[in-house]
């Protein structure tokens, strides 16, 4: 009798915890407040990419530049919309498209400069790119910084994540 009561109690607790603590998946795209080391538009990114954004800000400060964000999370018209492989990181909220500005907002290096390899001839730009790569970020020409997540999980898995994330974020828009 005591054993049956104990088993019933354990089952009851397990069932209640399943209902009470079973969290529904939510949109992981969150606004990032970059401070004076960033300029440009509002930054939206996957919460797991925020530590990388903090790293980008601290490296920019050390290199005496601003990261001018041209775009971040890529919100799609439909969750199943096809994206270029080069855009997948943004569709997952794990990348930014950027230019490099001086601390007063003047242009240092834009996408044309970065595409032509001139980034290696401008000390501030080279400082930023080299130090971000040392910290684990990936620089993709012409002007994308990302964490390499798609390479780690593969395109098929990235596509599944993209669809799921885009659906969740359509239901509840990031702020």
Protein traits:
alpha+beta, 175 residues, signal
What does this structure look like?
Keywords: Signal. The chain is 43% helix and 20% strand. It has 175 residues and is of the alpha+beta class. The chain has one domain (26-171): Muramoyl-pentapeptide Carboxypeptidase, domain 2 (2-Layer Sandwich), CATH 3.30.1380. Strand 7 and strand 8 (144-146) form a beta hairpin. Helix 2 packs antiparallel against helix 5. The protein starts with a helix and ends with a helix.
Overall pLDDT, averaged?
Answer: 87
Number of DSSP-assigned strands: 8
Whole-number count of domains = 1
Low-confidence stretches: 5-12, 14-20
- Taking all Cα atoms into account, the compactness measure Rg is 21 Å
SS element count, helices: 7
SS class? alpha+beta
Q: Kindly estimate the percentage of residues that lie in beta strands according to DSSP.
A: 15-25%
């Amino acid at each position: 009798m005591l054993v049956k009561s104990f088993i019933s109690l354990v089952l009851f607790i397990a069932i209640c915890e399943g209902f009470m603590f079973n969290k529904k998946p939510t949109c992981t795209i969150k606004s990032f407040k970059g401070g004076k080391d960033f300029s440009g538009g509002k930054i939206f990114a996957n919460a797991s990419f925020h530590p990388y954004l903090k790293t980008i800000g601290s490296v920019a400060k050390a290199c005496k530049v601003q990261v001018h964000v041209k775009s971040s999370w890529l919100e799609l018209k439909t969750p199943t919309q096809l994206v270029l492989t080069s855009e997948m990181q943004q569709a997952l909220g794990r990348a930014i498209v950027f230019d490099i500005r001086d601390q007063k907002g003047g242009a240092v290096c834009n996408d044309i400069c970065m595409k032509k390899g001139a980034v290696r001839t401008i000390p501030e730009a080279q400082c930023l790119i080299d130090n971000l790569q040392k910290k684990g970020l990936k620089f993709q020409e012409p002007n994308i910084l990302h964490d390499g997540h798609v390479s780690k999980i593969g395109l098929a898995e990235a596509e599944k994540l993209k669809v799921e994330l885009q659906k969740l974020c359509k239901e509840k828009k990031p702020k």
